[in-house]
Amino acid sequence: MRWTCLAGLAATLALALAGCNKSGNSSSANSNEIVIGHVASLTGDTATFGVSADEGIRLALEQINSKGGVLGKQVKVITEDDRSLSDEAKTAANKLITRDHVCALLGEIASSRSIAIAPVAEDAKIPMLSPGSTNPKVTQGYQYVFRNCFTDNFQGAAIADFAMKQLGLKQFAILYPANSDYGVGLRDVFKKTVEKNGGQIVDQEAYTEKSDVDFRGQLTKIKNANPQAIFDSGYYTEAGLIAQQARELGITCPILGGDGWDSDQTIKIGGKAIEGCYFSNHYSPDENRQEVKDFVAAYAKKYNGKVPDAMAVLGYDAMKIMADAIQRAGSTDGTKIRDALAATKNFPGVSGSTTIDANHNARKPIVMVKIEDGRFKYAGTVNPE
Ligand code: PHE
Q1: Tens digits of per-residue pLDDT, 296-354?
Q2: 134 in ligand 1 pocket by Cβ < 6 Å?
Q3: DSSP states of 183-195 as a string?
Q4: Which of 100, 121, 113 is nearest to 42 (CA)?
Q5: Nearest alpha-carbon partner for 269 in 232, 235, 238
Q6: What is the number of the ligand 1 atom nearest to the C-alpha of 235?
Q7: What pLDDT shows up at residue 272?
Q8: Across the beta sheet with 200-207, what order do the strands follow?
Q9: Which of 41, 138, 259 should be mutated for ligand 1, with most atoms under 8 A from CB?
Q10: 17-36 burial string, b = 16+ CB within 10 Å, else e?
Q11: Among the atoms of ligand 1, which is closest to the Cα of residue 133?
Q12: Reported CATH class of domain 153-281
């Protein structure tokens, strides 16, 4: 008798849970909270990406909740660490969707990891908004996957244009991480743009991200090709080391990079060797816009005077854009949130006014940064056509 009762109870519970899932709503639909997941590299080799994005998200969350939340409910963000690994990112996304019943996902920052979790979000019909993944493949062919930043089609071209038109350079060598979607994609666009504008790629060398620490072989070949600048399309984890070893070998030309260089670690590892180098980014704390000033001040207040990097800004913007979309959707239903995200227009982000285009990407200005006197200095803006 007792067992029958328990079995009956279990069956009822299972039915209730199944009903919950089937509605497409998160479990939050029945509670006073709206639950959003964040897949982030809080640890591992690119930990500054995840930590910064999460800090930005939590600052936005605090502001959203202090103003009454979304749809009259408080918003909760559950962050799941992926240890900077693509497989772990997939596991994290699955956990957030099936265990926590999140109604939306924020993340990832690194393109390879966003590419890994996009199909998970798509299959579950849970909208995913990547704050900073710039590789075109991240959103391609998906209905539920978005980003609130520019893509590398624009970034790669902007760096090449800047180097050729502003710095007057023509001959480049490329050093790229062969095992990174981001690094390979950015290399391709940079190369194409240089060649289209009448410049030359005098040498191209590969390395393995997360494993190589000695780049002297590649740098020796680059030195012999005598470029006017080196384009390194990887992350901050290698950029500083590459600069150190280039200078040791007597290479004096500037080294250029993309947004993947944005971390205080670039300066810590690169030191004097990376002075005079340039990279492209999503924002600079030196910009004069009011949104930037307010954000930099609020971030410093919350995080002991810390200066926010681009991931912090993009995480902050992503959280606000997602909250705005859920509010406009009037529901936590995945498909309704997706439709609202797709309709995002002129959202006043810290990284610029954000409009989601038909391909689920944002078109925003690129900021060029020069590394000078041990800090990142604003060196110009490249506007999208
Ligand atoms: N754009 C990088 C990628 O796609 C990630 C990144 C975003 C790095 C923002 C720095 C700042 O992998």
Answers
A1: 999 999 999 999 999 999 999 999 999 999 999 999 999 999 999 999 999 999 999 99
A2: yes
A3: HHHHHHHHHHHHH
A4: 113
A5: 238
A6: 8
A7: 98
A8: 200-207, 171-177, 229-232, 255-257, 278-281, 366-372, 375-382
A9: 259
A10: eeeeeeebbbbbbeeebbbb
A11: 4
A12: alpha beta
Q: Helix (H) and strand (E) counts for the chain? A: 12, 14
11 has a pLDDT exceeding 60:
no
Query: Are the folds of 11-150+290-365 and 153-281 the same?
Result: yes
Contact 85, 66 (CB under 8 A): no
Question: Rounded distance, CA 238 to CA 226, Å?
Answer: 22
Task: Write out the H or E segment, with its range, that includes residue 143.
Answer: none
**Gyration radius of the chain over CA positions:** 22
CB contact set of 246 (below 8 Å; sequence gap of 6+): 215, 219, 222, 230, 255, 273
Residues 121 and 248 sit within 8 Å (Cβ to Cβ): no
Is 2 a residue whose pLDDT tops 90? no
As a whole-number percent, the residues of the chain with pLDDT over 70 amount to 92
Q: Which residue has the tokens 């019909």?
A: 125
| Ligand 1 neighbour 260 (Cβ under 6 A) | yes
pLDDT of residue 7: 46
Q: Determine phi and psi for 204, rounding to 5 degrees.
A: -140, 125
What pLDDT was estimated at residue 196?
98
Q: What is the mean pLDDT of the chain?
A: 93
Cross-strand bridge partners of residue 375: 372
135 Cα–ligand 1 center, Å: 9
Q: Which of 54, 124, 60 is nearest to 82 (CA)?
A: 54
Report the SS3 class of residue 203. Answer: strand
Q: Which atom of ligand 1 sits closest to the CA of residue 112?
A: 12
Query: In a 3-state reduction of DSSP, which class is residue 106?
Result: strand
C-alpha 32 to ligand 1 mean position (Å): 34
Best of 84, 130, 134, 209 for a ligand 1 pocket test (most atoms within 8 Å of beta carbon)? 134
- Is CATH 3.40.50.2300 the right assignment for the domain spanning 11-150+290-365? yes
Cα(76)–Cα(121) distance, integer angstroms: 19
- Quote the pTM value: 0.91
The domain locations on the chain are 11-150+290-365, 153-281
Residue 51, CA distances (Å) to 43, 110, 211, 230 in order: 8, 13, 22, 29
